[in-house]
Structure formats: structure tokens, C-alpha cells
Amino acid sequence: MNRLALAALLLTVPSFAADVHVRVDPSASHANPGNENLTSFPTIQNALDHHPFATPNSNGTPGRVFIEIVPGVYHERIIVTQNHNNITLIGLGNSPADVVITNSLNAKTAGGTFFTETVEINGSGFEADNITFENTAGNTGQAVAVADRGDRSIFKHCRFLSHQDTLFADYGRQYYVDSYIEGGVDYIFGNATAVFERDELHSNGPGFITAQSRTSADQTTGYVIVDSHVTSGLEPAAPAMDPATPGAKSSASAHNTIGLGRPWRAYSRVVYINTTLPAELNPLGWDHWGSAANESTAYYAESGSTGPGASPSTRAAWSHQLSAAEARQYLPAIFLAGPKSGPDHWDPIAEAAKLP
Question: Among 170, 186, 199, 287, which one carries the catalytic annotation?
């Protein structure tokens, strides 16, 4: 059954079902206040603003709102508010490239990095499958494609496209699986507890892949990249960024190479496990971002790196090489389970498997 047929079937679910299924189709009529019982909307934000709310399941667990999006390029900015939990966006195309949510803002034009995102997620339990999230501002400074501040987020078969600060993974537990993330400078940043599994991290310019921002040693946050591939579009004579452009200094500091990460905050934590690294990777791997004091607080580690960029002997002396047994604590089923004082036993792998 193809995705369009699946969507048609889902829209026939009886009204007593806990979950809600609606469609985004540009040919649909615009919904206004009071039109909360529609099942078709012309834009994604219109669907988010006016969809019917799901009702609890018989076991008391919350229902979910599925927003199925027909193929197309959606020129809009999306905000999932805090009172919109358990939202699932599903692209109905054959690949993530068939459903694109796109905008173009950089920090200079928007008034700061945190006003540039194409999609902003604040509700918990957010999911996305088979969608491209894009900021087309290019190599012009900070330009966020997705800002995620929701707990228990899952992205499956998605693409994230920008240059600097592509993905602001900032809060809660987040799981990115079988996805593609592209950028040049600090293109995964923030203070979420996030796992990136079987992903491709593609550097489209010189700079650091991660800028994780854990602020104290007792925080459970950090980034884990596992069973993934780092690739590079770097060219030996890549043009320099205009020195007046925000981020120019940080881009130049990479010296036309790729870095695994640098600490946006002192206790930054990033672990790469069984990941393939390219030849363009700086042999040091990590950087202290201009402060030697960060070397004693940041936690940067690798386990089982492969590829031409795998070089344990040349890594920064203050980073770590972990055995497979030592790395096990960072695998998604453990790292994303929740605080030990009261884990909710969230199973992102099982939840992701339910997506198409």
C-alpha cells in the first residue's frame, strides 16, 4: 500500500478512535477559528492550529495527532507549541525530498540565531518521518533549520539542511534515526540528551560538527553518534567567508578541516560510537574553543571509529577512547531511558519502529 492510499485509509478511522489523522494538501480550504473538525488543511501550520485534539486511550495513555503531508515544497515557518504534545508529521512522498518545509533566515536578518529556525518544536512526544527541514540562507552565518526543545522527540528518515547551526537540539531526549544532517559550522548544537543512530552527518564546509552545551557535570545531557557516517563536501580551496559575516571567525578556526566537536559550554559531552570518519577530519578531532580550562570539564570520546579519519593516536590528549563495554552506557536504550530517580522507560527504538 502506498503512502497516499494509507492516508486515505487513515482518514476513515471512526470518530471514537483515540488518535486523530488529518491531511495537509495545498488544494484544501483554509481553516479559520471554529473549524476544528476539518480533516484537510492547506498548510502545515494551519493543520497544527485547527486539528481536532486526540482523546486518551482506554488505558489512560494520550492519543496522538497524525498530520500526513502530501508531496510538495512548503514555504512556511512551523511552531509546535507546548500544549501540542504527541504530534506526528508524516511525509507522504517516496523519499524525504518529496516533502520539504523551507524558509530562509539568518541571524543578521532575523535579529539573532534563535529567531531563524524554520521549524520550532516545544511540545513533548513530537515525531517526524520522511520530511526535509531546510533553511536556505546558505553560508551567511547562523541559520537554524530545526529548533527542538521537546522531550521524547523522534525523527526518522528526515533531512536537515543548512550551513551554520542547522539543528538546535536543545532540550529533553531526542532520537534521530536513518536521517541526514548537513551543515558546516557547529551544525548540531544545544543541550539535549540526543542519540543519532545510522545517520549521515555531512559537512558542506569547514567547521565543527557538534557544539554541545552541557553546563554541569551532573546533567545527563549530551550527544551520542552511533553506527553513523560522517561525510564531507569539503574542497581544498573552499572560498573564505566574508570576515564581517557572523560566524566567520569560528569557520576560519577549523583551517579548512572538519572537527568532531567543541564545547559551547564548559561541560560539553559528545561520544562517537562505531562511526565512519572521512579523511578531511582534523587529526586532533576536538577543540577547546579558545579556553584550555574546557579540557578538564568537557567529555569527548570515541569507540570503534572507522574510515580514513579514524586516528586514536593523534586525538587531543584530553579526549577519551572507550572500549565497547565502556561505550554501552551511551547506546539509545540506556542513554535515553530517563533519569535514574524515576525513568519513564521511554523506548525510542520501539516507538520509531511504529512509524511508516
Answer: 186
